[in-house]
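$ ./design --mode recover --in tokens.txt
reading tokens...
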């Protein structure tokens, strides 16, 4: 007959618990309970003030799922992008499901593509009073925590409300509070979630050592899922590919105003490697189109604007795409894409959207999504220009127009110091695809001619005399 579990107060101890003592308590249980009690007493004494003190109204839809993105580290940025993708998948899997996404920083956190109508609000995840008010106002069915330090206030409020907590774990466990040095607090928090989803075995070991229950840890891999291809107009893509012809092309996407001068300078430098190089520039603010045209003229670049219905010709150096909702078109046309905002550290577009359509990624020193770590950042304007120019030259490609794919690319993001993306066999994934070029255009000659092969005479086999040389006459 199996032994029955013992009860110690409000806690049930399994009969085969190796950490159970004769007194009926586990090692460190009282310390963990004391640590959590001390934190709740200190956090409950503080009053919400400043940002996020008022709880916003709940979104429509029932049941409601609350997703929270704590302030992450650099290694967790990719998983936060996956948190936005997770919200989109949840919204598409169940009709009528309510979703609310909060973040624990004053500045917006990049969470990738999110479904339309998703409510995104800042949250005081360190304030227990605010967390209790949010659970009372929203009444969510579950709380999903993204990668980053664990917010004790939200976990404690979820436990009081009787709601399950799911953790999408980052690389290493941590606690987001000034009480993080309190003995036993992290272990007490890791005992609360119903499920902890980790990316690999190393993360699982780290969370087990930190105090999480082994049976509640599940390895699922990185959450940063590859997004689906952005939409485009096939007729517009074909027309632009014919107009661009065999000219080499690169794209500067989501360029903020403080980086426009750097991108224009990079275009001038890159033209030294490919004098027919064409730059398609997509500003973050479409109203910057006229000012960009004037700045390009001051730099000696001939520019045309798409919003003004101006057509590029062979003498055009800059095509200003001052329109909205056409990134899917430009990713299909450009074999190389530089992402604005990565030089100054401001918000940028998702580089996985370009990689999904086969465009090599170039970025600055600011942190980007973690799944593009094989690429190395550029450090200066000249390095950015050299990366774009060499990537275009080594790829032996013209424009990337009519044959662009609608599915994910097999190659990874390109080396941002000039190496193009590599496929499975260590080759350029677009090298053997003739449909990558423009419609009706032949590929140009490569920038560097290959060296001729040297034919060496085959050595004679052992034990055999070499054949006699025939003399003249």
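writing sequence...
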């Amino acid at each position: 007959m199996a032994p029955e579990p013992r009860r110690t107060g409000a806690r049930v101890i399994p009969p085969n618990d190796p950490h159970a003592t004769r007194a009926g308590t586990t090692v460190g249980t009282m310390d963990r309970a004391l640590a959590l009690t001390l934190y709740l007493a200190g956090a409950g004494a503080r009053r919400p003030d400043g940002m996020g003190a008022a709880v916003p109204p709940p979104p429509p839809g029932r049941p409601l799922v609350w997703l929270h993105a704590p302030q992450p580290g650099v290694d967790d940025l990719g998983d936060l992008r996956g948190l936005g993708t997770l919200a989109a998948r949840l919204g598409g899997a169940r009709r009528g499901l309510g979703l609310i996404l909060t973040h624990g920083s004053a500045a917006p956190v990049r969470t990738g593509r999110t479904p339309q109508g998703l409510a995104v609000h800042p949250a005081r995840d360190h304030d227990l009073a605010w967390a209790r008010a949010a659970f009372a106002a929203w009444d969510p069915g579950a709380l999903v925590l993204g990668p980053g330090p664990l917010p004790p206030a939200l976990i404690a409020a979820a436990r009081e409300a009787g709601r399950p907590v799911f953790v999408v774990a980052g690389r290493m466990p941590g606690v987001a509070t000034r009480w993080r040095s309190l003995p036993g607090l992290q272990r007490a928090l890791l005992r609360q979630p119903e499920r902890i989803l980790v990316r690999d075995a190393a993360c699982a070991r780290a969370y087990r050592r930190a105090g999480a229950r082994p049976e509640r840890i599940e390895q699922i891999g990185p959450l940063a899922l590859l997004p689906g291809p952005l939409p485009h107009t096939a007729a517009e893509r074909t027309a632009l590919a014919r107009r661009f012809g065999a000219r080499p092309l690169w794209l500067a996407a989501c360029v903020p105003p403080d980086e426009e001068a750097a991108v224009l300078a990079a275009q001038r430098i890159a033209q030294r490697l490919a004098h027919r190089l064409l730059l398609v520039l997509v500003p973050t603010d479409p109203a910057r189109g006229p000012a960009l045209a004037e700045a390009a003229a001051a730099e000696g670049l001939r520019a045309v604007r798409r919003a003004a219905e101006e057509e590029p010709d062979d003498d055009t150096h800059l095509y200003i795409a001052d329109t909205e909702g056409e990134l899917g078109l430009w990713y299909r046309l450009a074999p190389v894409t530089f992402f604005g905002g990565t030089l100054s550290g401001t918000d940028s577009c998702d580089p996985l959207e370009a990689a999904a359509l086969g465009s090599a990624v170039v970025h600055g020193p600011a942190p980007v999504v973690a799944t593009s770590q094989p690429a190395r950042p550029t450090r200066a304007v000249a390095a950015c220009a050299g990366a774009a120019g060499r990537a275009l030259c080594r790829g032996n490609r013209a424009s990337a127009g009519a044959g662009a794919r609608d599915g994910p690319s097999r190659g990874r993001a390109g080396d941002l110091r000039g190496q193009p993306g590599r496929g499975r066999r260590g080759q350029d994934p677009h090298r053997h695809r003739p449909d990558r070029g423009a419609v009706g255009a032949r590929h140009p000659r490569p920038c560097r001619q290959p060296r001729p092969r040297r034919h060496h005479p085959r050595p004679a086999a052992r034990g055999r005399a070499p054949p006699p040389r025939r003399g003249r006459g």
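exit 0
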